[in-house]
Amino acid sequence: MTFEGITSRGESVDLGEPSSLRLDRDCDAPADSLQASFLRSTTAVITRLRVWQEDTLIFDGLVDESESTAGENGFEQTFSARSRAALLLDNEARPQRYSRVSFPILFARHAAPLGFTQYEAPQRSFVGSFSVQKGESEWTVLENFCQQFLHTGVMMRPDGSLYAGAEPAHFWQFGDGGIAVASVSVKYKLCDLISEAQVQKMDNGSYTCAVWSKIAQALGIRRTRFFQFSQLAYRHAQDAVEEGEKNWISVTLEIPGRVDALPGDSAAFFSDNWGTFERLRVTRVVFTLENGVPWSRVVLRQEGGTENVDG
């Protein structure tokens, strides 16, 4: 890997090999984080870090903190950085209201001015009120639109491109017949599962089942939630059930070397001892490098089994 620092003047600095490194990608955190230490020091103020794997850019981010120290072992320079999604998180959006909205429109007004140029998302326009509230970040604007109109999230790739509503780019097979795994941990979180969500009817005020969980019912779990009538009541009910299913089972894999998987990729894990886990999503990838030894931790979650009820 090649580590490049960019100074406030735009000059490129070869940082050499790090003495320690931690790169954390998490689907629950819009910006990837990087902590890296180098046995060197420079008087130049480095404001941006890039990490390359041969010709592939695997991290491009802004330096949040840097520290240089000197001791018996010489100079050491440490950086804490976040990927370019930090630009969208750290900038507040101008409050406004849209009567017709689409991802291209929002990208042009909320992301492009900060230097973003690429995205992959549906082009469709939607008629209806969409408000940007005071205090919301540029990232929140894009995320709210995707959740409200596209019923999905928004993510950023390592090259700085945004995508929403797209199918996973890669499939990964771990364990038997796939990437070798050093250790496995499987966690079941049953307390978050909701068996059904009921929504109040507008005409008579009664409640009826709108969404139910195949997973919860198969496990014999009974946990009901009620939602008062509103234009978004059905969506809130569906979100509540899906949120419980999203975390109900997780598989954590410890793997020698570096794994190129990204949050949002699909995956499966096969093992004679553990059995078969399919329909998984990569939710977190942590890559560390200590004393020249690369190691990856990959966290997988199983996709849910939400069922919508018509009428």
Largest sheet: 13 strands, mixed
How would the global form be characterised?
globular
Mean pLDDT: 90
**How many H/I helices?**
5
Encode the helix/strand succession as letters.
EEEEEEEHEHEEHEEEEEEHEHEEEEE
User: How many whole angstroms does the radius of gyration measure?
Assistant: 22 Å
Domains (count): 3
Fraction in beta strands = over 45%
Could you tell me the number of beta strands?
22
**Main structural class:** mainly beta
Distance between the termini: 56 Å
The level of helicity is: 10-25%
Low-confidence stretches at least 5 residues in length (pLDDT < 50)? none
Task: Give a brief description.
The chain has 311 residues and is mainly β. The chain has 5 helices and 22 strands.
Can you describe what's shown?
The chain has 311 residues and is mostly beta strands. It folds into 3 domains: 2-83, Phage tail proteins - horseshoe like beta roll fold (Roll); 87-164, Phage tail protein beta-alpha-beta fold (3-Layer(bab) Sandwich), CATH 3.55.50.10; 171-308, no CATH class. It contains 5 helices and 22 strands. It has helices at residues 85-90, 103-110, 138-150, 214-218, 233-246; strands at 2-7, 12-14, 20-26, 29-38, 46-53, 56-71, 74-83, 96-101, 119-120, 126-132, 154-156, 162-164, 171-175, 183-188, 196-200, 207-213, 224-227, 249-256, 266-271, 275-290, 293-302, 306-308. The strands form 4 sheets. Strands 1, 2, 3, 4, 5, 6, 7, 13, 14, 18, 19, 20 and 21 form a 13-stranded mixed sheet that branches. Strands 17-15-16-22 form a 4-stranded mixed sheet. Strand 1 (2-7) and strand 2 (12-14) form a beta hairpin. The termini are far apart.
